[in-house]
Design brief:
Elements: H1 2-18, E1 44-51, E2 61-67, E3 70-77, E4 82-94, E5 97-105, E6 116-124, E7 127-131, E8 136-140
Antiparallel strand pairs: 1-2, 1-8, 2-3, 3-4, 4-5, 5-6, 6-7, 7-8
């Protein structure tokens, strides 16, 4: 457990250092994306909790980091702390329409390079629901 928390803490620190602090999503059309107060509603570090309609899970370790116009996803096996999947890229948020484009990946997800996955996104408090090719519920890591 300590190793997992250390991994997550280091991951969050590293990603925060690489991020800027703009308050809205950068868009190619020059318009600001949807915001919640001064902070974009999807910005943050998220932990996967379940598939939509499914039971809560504690076995799967998935982390998604979203900041300004970039995102990344990692899934790891908690026993040996080995990364199974890692990929990320850019995203576009327009209202509740959210699209992730995969710009980089490890060998296990390299076949997805260049693909864009479109979702309906709903953020309520610290819970984000993505409905689209994958229907998932995420909670914000604090």
């Amino acid at each position: 457990m300590k190793r997992q928390l250390a991994f997550l803490g280091g991951f969050v620190l590293l990603m925060s250092a690489c991020s800027s602090s703009k308050s809205s999503v950068n868009r190619t059309d020059g318009k600001a994306g949807a915001t919640l107060g001064a902070t974009n509603a999807v910005n943050g570090v998220w932990r996967f909790v379940r598939d939509v309609g499914g039971p809560m899970t504690s076995l799967t370790r998935k982390i998604k980091h979203i900041r300004d116009k970039h995102w990344m996803f990692s899934q790891f096996d908690p026993a040996p702390n080995i990364t199974l999947y890692h990929h990320g890229g850019t995203y576009l948020l327009d209202g509740n329409s959210y699209a992730e484009t995969i710009d980089y990946a490890n060998e296990t997800t390299g076949g997805m390079l260049g693909q864009t996955f479109r979702y309906d996104v709903n953020v309520v408090g610290d819970t984000m629901t993505l409905t689209g090719p994958f229907n998932e519920v995420w909670v914000r890591v604090k």
